[in-house]
Write a structure and sequence with these properties.
The protein has 641 residues and is α/β, with parallel strands linked by helices. It is 39% helix and 22% strand.
């Protein structure tokens, strides 16, 4: 048993109360608002949860009700979520980017009684589908701007008014809140977390207090955190990755959660905070990597010279650091010199100087990107898990980072590989199942093990290697197996490629559609005097095609087996988008949907007589409107395949 296993006896509100007794005046939450950082101590945190909980009770909510949250990351979403938990209700997160009809479907499925929105934009989405959601009793909002007319309708309530109701209830019955908190049990379902929805409407995963707290306790057994450590909350709250930090790790360790002023300012606010640990999906680290390359590209020639030299030194040193081996003296001196002269100032500009550990999960990250971050001095490590196991079940340890793996099981986590290669896991963090989906729950938890749906194996070092989704692993027409995810990650390591979709199942060869990175390729084009107007125009330039051909050739050269090599590709005329249903909310490709949507391009990739094709390109805007234009797409055959 670990020293913090006693925390598993608490519900989340009970653990929050324990934190107040331990460190009442320590900062628990910080929020940047109008350029000023405002602090909530643990005492303040608990007080706001109490006000919210009793306010929710006065508007008719109680045990068994569900409160949905559609909001950017602000302290109030935690007040509402944990306030709901305190009265025996359940919280549920919905992505802020969700469209009205999608929101209606989720609210209907989860039988939601109240919705919390941060602003008018989200309120309007709920209002648009009001007739479809008769069970929703109240819509609570945080930002009153633009909401004056809405207040004539008692369906809406300002959170400030909810607090007042809670305060009045507390004056009347000062013992009620503590009594309600005492009634909570660690195994009670407290939150419904939506799965990524790669195959359709997301499932509501039932998460318990113990699920979150166990995950927080076990990850910090491997990587301890101090109460003085800072975390930046910028991931969508609807994603398990954010919940495991705000519900699990923060409660288990007492760290401070920092909320940026907005999604748009998150990266600049990062520099002010200087976090000690951070967690993000691969796209976050790909974006930061692109920013680094742009900074170097725009720098003086001497800076470029030093960077290009010392990044090579850093890459050599990274191999030693990741495996915990002793570095040769000469390399050690060069590495130290490069860190002080170039790499340390560089990561300081990004805001990662105090970072001790960075984690990535939600999708695979290419080994090259891991090594790059380790080379510049960022201790990036892979975690692996699913929503159903509270996000993390496996992770790298310091000095044992192997970029091609996802690390070893967390303490208390069991792993085995099924006969068909599926990864199975078991721990106290495994969800009891899906809301209102008994058959799906039985299937996912068959035999008492969580069935991941991923193929993998345990290597000779005891690390888990994830090959791909079982449903995504492909075989060519000779029945030779290959992983599309592996090739996609190899392509995406190029700064010029933002996304790639690999095809080739039951086909003669591997082909792909590629999204160029508009920022990096745009800068590359400007430097060479290549003019362009739109993304479609830029992706259609022959010079850009030549540039991407070089990236594909490089991946082919490094391919271990011949059937891994890419023979044909095309540059997609638009970026893959969540709003178009091509990506999940966490950035995963919905491969089947993408292939069906671009079937005409897929067919042309496998017809080697086609070099160019006219297509009708459809675009969906955030307001729901769409437009169609004609585009000319070129298809390229790679030499030597």
């Amino acid at each position: 048993m670990s020293k913090n296993d006693h925390l598993l006896e608490y519900s989340i509100p009970q653990l929050l109360r324990w934190r107040v007794k331990s460190t009442p005046k320590r900062p628990a939450l910080r929020e940047k608002d109008f350029g000023i950082w405002n602090t909530y101590t643990w005492e303040d945190y608990y007080s706001h949860v109490r006000r919210t909980a009793l306010g929710l009770k006065t508007i008719g909510l109680g045990k068994g009700d569900t409160v949905a949250i559609i909001s950017d990351n602000i302290p109030e979403l935690l007040f509402v979520a944990i306030g709901a938990h305190s009265i025996g209700a359940i919280s549920a997160g919905i992505y802020q980017t969700s469209m009205p009809d999608e929101i209606a479907q989720i609210l209907q499925y989860l039988k939601v009684s109240a919705v919390f929105c941060d602003n008018q934009e989200q309120v309007d989405k709920v209002l648009e589908v009001r007739k479809k959601i008769p069970d929703v009793k109240k819509v609570i909002f945080e930002d009153p701007r633009g909401m004056r007319e809405y207040m004539k309708d008692d369906w809406f309530i300002d959170i400030a008014d909810l607090y007042k109701k809670g305060d009045k209830e507390y004056e009347k019955n000062p013992d009620l809140f503590e009594t309600l908190v005492d009634q909570g049990k660690p195994d009670d379902v407290c939150h419904l977390c939506l799965t990524s929805g790669t195959t359709g409407l997301p499932k509501g995963t039932m998460m318990t207090h113990k699920n979150y707290i166990n995950m927080g306790v076990k990850i910090t057994e491997v990587d301890p955190l101090q109460q003085t450590d800072e975390y930046v909350s910028f991931l969508p709250f609807a994603w398990i990755g954010e919940q495991m930090n705000s519900f699990g790790i923060a409660m288990a360790t007492g760290i401070t959660i920092n909320f940026p002023e907005s999604v748009e300012t998150a990266m600049s606010d990062l520099k002010e905070i200087g976090p000690h640990f951070m967690f993000g999906a691969p796209r976050i680290y790909e974006t930061i990597r692109s920013e680094i390359w742009l900074k170097i590209d725009q720098s003086y020639w001497l800076n470029k010279l030093f960077y290009n030299y010392f990044i090579k030194v850093g890459l050599k040193a990274a191999d030693y650091k990741m495996t915990g081996k002793s570095m040769p003296p000469g390399l050690k001196i060069k590495s130290w010199l490069g860190t002080q002269m170039v790499l340390r100032p560089l990561i300081n500009q990004i805001g990662l100087l105090r970072l001790r550990r960075a984690y990535t999960g939600g999708a695979a990250l290419g080994p090259e990107l891991f090594t790059f971050y380790q080379a510049i001095g960022v201790n990036l490590k892979q975690i692996y898990g699913q929503t159903e196991i509270t996000g993390i079940a496996y992770m790298h340890r310091d000095g044992d980072v192997r970029p091609e793996t996802v690390g070893k099981p967390l303490p208390g986590t069991e792993c085995k590989i099924a006969e068909d290669g599926e990864i199975l896991s078991k721990s106290l963090s495994v969800s009891p199942g899906y809301y209102d989906l008994p058959e799906k729950s039985k299937e996912a938890l068959e035999g008492g093990w969580l069935h991941s749906g991923d193929a993998g194996f345990i290597d000779e070092h005891g690390h888990l290697v994830v090959i791909d989704r079982l449903s995504d692993v492909m075989h060519n027409n000779k029945d030779e197996m290959f992983s599309p995810m592996f090739l996609e990650n190899a392509l995406k390591f190029s700064p010029y490629i933002k996304e790639a979709i690999i095809f080739g199942n039951k086909e003669d060869f591997v082909a792909c559609l590629i999204n160029i990175d508009p920022v990096v390729v745009g800068k590359w084009a400007e430097d060479r005097g290549i003019s362009y107007t739109t993304y479609m125009d830029l992706s259609g330039k022959p010079e850009v095609a030549t540039l991407i051909m070089e990236q594909v050739l490089d991946v082919n050269l490094r391919a271990e087996k011949e059937h891994f090599r890419i023979k044909r590709f095309a540059l997609l005329y638009k970026l893959l988008d969540v709003d178009d249903g091509e990506l999940t909310k966490t950035g995963k490709i919905r491969r089947k949907f993408v292939q069906e949507r671009y079937q005409n391009l897929y067919d042309a990739l496998y017809d080697e007589s086609i070099d160019k094709k006219q297509v009708e390109a459809s675009f969906q805007y955030q307001d729901g409107q769409s437009t169609t234009v004609t585009a000319s797409i070129n298809f390229y055959t790679v030499k030597g395949v």
